[in-house]
Amino acid sequence: MRMSGIFALGRTGMLVNGWRSDRRREARRHTAWAAAVGALGLMLAAVAQQAGSSLGLLAAPALSAAGTMGSIPVFWSLPPRYMSGTALAAGVALINSCANLAGYFAPRFLGGMKESTGSYGLGLFAIAGVDSSAWSSSSCSSGRSRRRSPQPRRTPGRPTRRCPEVTHAGRLLKQQGHLTAVYRKWDPKY
User: Which of 27, 85, 155, 183 is the most buried (most CB within 10 A)?
Assistant: First the structure.
């Protein structure tokens, strides 16, 4: 039950950080600061474990999950801004490969640190260091993308009108080409 609550906060971090990043049209700093919050949570978890604080052992991983998981969806919006075509495919493949290797080796590393030192503290600090490097690389990058993020299309002085006749069934009929006249009546660009 405790772990599901921690990951529920991680889900909340994903939704809030992604929403805020989309709203402000900025991803690099949102990725960096979410990774920094994740690193802080891991460091606090290591300190709480060494201090023997059960409340800290509950709150710190929740903070870490909210930060680390909050950086993931925003991070994935960055590669298409800097690469395209084959380079984008290779970049995404490289990122996925590194993430898969981290998913395999991180638990083994933490277990090895626990066996050798008798505590998870040093391993948590090491993983927080990796999270901190994600923060520093995101916040220190140039921020110049190969293209600007697309601006929403707006027609000045004219609100977007929706056809009241079109319901879910209407959308399905439109996809099949049956409601073209209804759409033309409401949207002259159609």
Answer: 27
